[in-house]
Amino acid sequence: MKTVRLTMAQALIRFLENQYLAWDDHEEPFVAGIFMVPGHGNVVGLGQAIAQEARRMKIYHGKNEQGMAHAAIAFAKQKKRKQIMAATSSVGPGAANMVTACGTATANNIPLLVLPGDTFASRQPDPVLQQVEMAHSAGISTNDAFRAVCRYFDRIERPEQVMTALLNAMRILTDPADTGAVCLALPQDVEGEAYDYPVSFLERRVHRLQRRPPEKEAVVLAARRVREAKKPLLICGGGVRYSEAHAAFASFAERFNIPFGETQAGKSALVWDHPLNLGGIGVTGTLPANVLAREADLIIGVGTRYTDFTTASKWLFNEHAKFLNINVSPFQAGKLDAFPLIADARKGLEALENALGDYKSGYTDEIARAKSDWDTELNRLDGMVYDETNPPLINDRNADSAGQFALDLNTALTQTAALGAFNRLIPEDAVVIGSSGSLPGDMQRMWRPFTPDSYNMEYGYSCMGYEVSGALGQKLAVDSKEVYSMVGDGSFVMLHSELLTAVQEKLKINICLFDNAGFGCINNLQVGQGNDSLCTELRYRTETGRHDGSFLAVDYAKIAEGYGCKAYTIRTLEELEAAVKDALTVKGRPVLFDLKVLPKTMTDGYASWWRVGSAEVSQNPRNQTAWQEHLDHIKDAKAY
Which member of 63, 253, 507, 524 has the greatest number of CB atoms within 10 A? Predict the structure, then answer.
């Protein structure tokens, strides 16, 4: 057997260089590059290996470990899981920072490879810098925290172990049914230790993305369930986009006249004005999608994992509704006591369409009427104007915030109008990204994608701080297209370190920062459950001992300019329009729009409910009312 002597780290990088993914008639390198924050746990062993062995892969200098790993996630998501970035950190806090990102990846079923440094396998220098010691076990390190959030975890304690570990890692990273985060913990001494690796292990390896076909009898039974339905409803999940089942989904819906609602991950598989597209469904959904979902007798979920936001905490659908799930994952396919059609989304839709023949749903003009009514509502939201004498607040809970904010920050810009303006002004092929706060609700309801796969919302983990980092990864995936990140001020403050990486790489990303001086959606939840505002608004503390003073006026534009970005401060729609047009001329550096938007001018719920753990016992009568509403809803929710 022909061998080559390499350090473990050198073998790892050479292996990653030679991994390819094949699907349909395509074949591409699987690992496009590596994000790294060097430290004493990875700069000597793995860092040396990267410098020596990385030829095709590009190396990016991350600024925060969580941020760079989130950038890798957004890259893989935009690439429809066909290509990934790896991320490496030092030991201790650097590694722990990536735990959050691994949770994000696994919750969203997005492939992510993290390579954190680890303490010494030999244990001779213990305790080393940044080592967490446990009296009951010398074999535990910070990296054991990854076990809870990764699909696969391994610690490479001998150089030869990296071979089986890498093969297992690739198995998970390329498996559409079970993909997510993979962590290979690298003890810093082992990184530099050598072994005679078989040359065959390091040669070009092509992993085939297999499209699982449905079982024939299952197709027959699934078709029978559809034929029994008069008013079925499709749910377009992320699996439609990842399996590139866009055309198959459209064909299925059109042939049988079945309307569909979109999950956050599935949105933009089809363009917004498709005649059967009802828009987002569930807690952050549209009125037509939620009303027709309540009336549907069969729910056909395609590539969805039925989060509580999609199902409105299992309350959305009527008690007689049945379920049929097309999903490559048996775990996801069986949810809600559904009939499972376990298959690749495209293969499953095509097989079921062939089996249904001349079936037609019982819908007449309900779909068109519902869409027409929603167009009217969208126009209202787009044109929302604030007038302090008659404030048109979409959400009037704790409504005094809007008036005070208007005075403190000298603005009258509403959030929905600003979002509608972006949708109208930016290029039709631009891609947008978001994650947390009130913006995901506004985006799922209001955003109108003109091109497929132009919407990237991380809402499986809804991780604050993903938005700016994700924009970086998304830009690396789409290259020349404009990228717009929709982010609240709370999330921006929490993590925006990769904005500096975008400056360093001369990458144009557009950060649309909606500053309402607080955590708006959580404030809505807080006061909507009968509580007073507590730590959800950015106000000064006063002599009362509470944060009930004026709002903080933060100049986010100046912060961005300090990094080297082009920035605009915006308080009117006229200023917004001028800024967006001017920003299109900017090249080679990020742009930040500092939008001063009024609190309580986001969208509100449309025939939906979210179960949030209301207080059963309270001296506050408003809490008691919220508890009663909770009881009224759970009696209609499915219990499985």
Answer: 253
